[in-house]
Specification:
This protein has 578 residues and is mostly helical. The chain contains 31 helices and no strands. The relative contact order is 0.04. Its main location: nucleus.
Length: 578
């Protein structure tokens, strides 16, 4: 962050900027705080202009750069930034801002229209202007609401008195399903009659129409009559194009009319909006036009940028298209580095799995490591990282991940207990020695007895074993859990049910004696329960955990792919980003 203490404004102005930055340091996600900073910088020294001090300009640019790095989809602020740069430093600086903006929000009709309009007014080379319009059309030309962009393109060519280009643009537009398709067709009908036949249609079609007219009326007819009949066929052909476009517009109208917020904002969307986007994407995918599908996904991800379900969906669809690894990679990168917060690491882990699937194992490992820099106690990522190592480098490499995490000062006691359980579970799944695995549990039980996952994994390990010692080992785990752990009674009851299920399904002749005893002591009234007869100091357990510690100790995790499900069909109201 810049040193705002060096700026040359008044003390009051400096205090305002300092206050805004202090608010952002405490809450960088608060949009109103960012708006306050932008306003304070814009009004610094009475308003920005060419004569503003270098300090004021540095303040303004730093604020806009940080703001638009945080919220790159706010096309209006890119336009505002470019306008200010134009007034301060001239067209080249403004152009750089527009380029950055269009790279950040590639499918913004408004921003491309503004950029092209700006270039029309500041550039006298038609080649440069036309190249920019064509670049823009490749991104936003198929948008259902692209009419402002196409209107600006037509306006430019009319200024250049390039009627042939005006006609060619209309000939492109009438084939695009857009909100104002009929207006362009009506204009096109007027233009086509002023075009020579050779310019109105391609040569092959013209030759075919000439042959048909000659066959229908003979060759001795006046030239004007022949041309009239050919133009009638041309009109019919383009009317069929119009009808086809009209049908395509009608198909999409249901979905388009339901889009209430076609732009980005930091507030949540209504459930009905997400449902509409899902249905619209389903429809467009069923139509099978790659460019139109990409265009719709990009529109959707402006509005729904903070909903990772659409990033997952876009990447999955892209990987199914064949030879699109780089496109899919860019989707993951955008989602992971710009929009989906690190507190929801699923999309980043999916990216890591994608990279592993393409042979870029080092990248996959680096992604895991980078997540753990910010979320050092995220068990899901630790386990996933270990399994990448197991798949690619063997069990020893995977075990080393767990050992390194146990040595890390960044992990709390409860996460380390879960790590021990997952380490043993990995060995169990890899056909490791039963004695080695059992030794991991018994060696660590005293230190990590307050981790639910530790006990889950120990119970599951012994359930997989066979032999005469299984019953004794299961009872030992139950007794250890009940006496040494400070987990809540509710959690102990759930763990006890694992043992009770074992007694019912795998126990011997006397198993029901133990079952009745466990049932009485864990689920009976207070007068006969284990808790009533227990003394923490005597049985070795520690005092009850506080609420924050209890949540860490008892939380069970699901891998991101296990937590995914169908959205509730009857849900109402706003949908939380999480």
């Amino acid at each position: 962050m810049s040193d705002y203490g060096t700026y040359g404004g008044s003390d009051e102005e400096y205090a305002s900027i300092k206050k805004c930055n202090a608010l952002l340091e405490s809450d960088a996600d608060n949009f109103e705080n960012w708006e306050g900073l932008i306003k304070a910088c814009e009004t610094f020294e009475g308003g920005l202009n060419r004569n503003s001090s270098p300090q004021a300009l540095a303040c303004f640019r730093d604020a806009y750069d940080r703001f638009l790095f945080k919220f790159p989809l706010l096309f209006g602020y890119w336009k505002k930034y470019a306008d200010l740069e134009f007034n301060i430093a001239g067209p080249e600086s403004a152009q750089m801002v527009y380029e950055r903006g269009c790279a950040s929000i590639t499918h913004s009709v408004d921003l491309w229209t503004d950029y092209c309009s700006f270039t029309m007014e500041t550039t006298h080379d038609p080649r440069i202007v036309r190249e920019l319009f064509e670049r823009g059309s490749s991104f936003v030309g198929l948008d259902f609401l692209a009419h402002p962009f196409w209107d600006k393109y037509i306006e430019y060519e009319e200024r250049q008195d390039a009627q042939d280009r005006v006609f060619a643009i209309h000939a492109r537009i009438i084939r695009i399903p857009m909100h104002q398709y009929a207006r362009y067709y009506e204009r096109f009908r007027g233009l086509i009659h002023s075009q020579p036949l050779a310019a109105a249609i391609d040569q092959d079609t013209l030759s075919r129409f000439q042959s048909e007219v000659a066959a229908e009326g003979g060759s001795a007819r006046p030239e004007l009559e022949i041309e009239r009949d050919i133009r009638a066929k041309i009109d019919t052909m383009y009317y069929e194009v119009f009808t086809l476009t009209q049908n395509e517009v009608t198909k999409r109208w249901t979905y388009e009319s339901e889009i209430k917020r076609p732009y980005f904002h930091v507030t949540e969307l209504e459930q009905s909006q997400l449902v509409n986007w899902r249905k619209y994407l389903d429809f467009e995918e069923s139509e099978g036009d790659f460019q139109r599908i990409v265009c719709l996904y990009e529109r959707c991800l402006v509005t729904c940028a903070f909903y990772d379900e659409f990033w997952f969906r876009y990447a999955r669809w892209m990987t199914a298209q064949g030879n699109k690894d780089e496109d899919a990679r860019n989707i993951y990168i955008r989602a992971s580095t710009m929009f989906v917060p690190l507190s929801r690491p699923g999309i980043r882990m999916q990216w890591a799995y994608f990279e592993e699937s393409t042979g870029r194992v080092d990248v996959a490992l680096d992604i895991h490591a980078s997540i753990l820099i910010q979320l050092p106690s995220c068990l899901e990522v630790i386990v996933s990282w270990a399994n990448v190592q197991r798949r690619q480098n063997g069990v020893e490499a995977a075990c080393q991940v767990f050992k390194d995490q146990l040595d890390s000062p960044n992990l709390d006691l409860y996460t380390k207990g879960a790590v021990v359980g997952e380490w043993a579970n990995l060995l169990r799944n890899s056909q490791g020695s039963a004695e080695e695995i059992r030794g991991i549990f018994t060696k660590n039980v005293q230190q990590y007895s307050d981790s639910r996952i530790f006990w889950d994994r120990w119970f599951n390990f012994e359930l997989d074993q066979s032999g005469s010692d299984q019953s004794k080992n299961m009872k030992h785990i139950f007794d250890e859990m009940r006496s040494k752990s400070s987990l809540s009674l509710a959690t102990k009851k759930e763990l006890a049910q694992i043992y009770m299920s074992y007694l019912v399904q795998q126990g011997g002749k006397d198993a029901m004696k133990l079952f009745i005893q466990v049932d009485r002591e864990m689920f009976g009234p207070a007068s006969v329960s284990f808790k009533a007869s227990s003394n923490p100091k005597q049985n070795g357990s520690s005092a009850e955990l506080d609420e924050a510690s209890r949540l860490k100790a008892e939380t069970r995790y699901l891998a991101f792919y296990e937590a995914q499900g169908e959205p509730a069909a009857d849900a109402q109201g706003q949908v939380d980003f999480n």
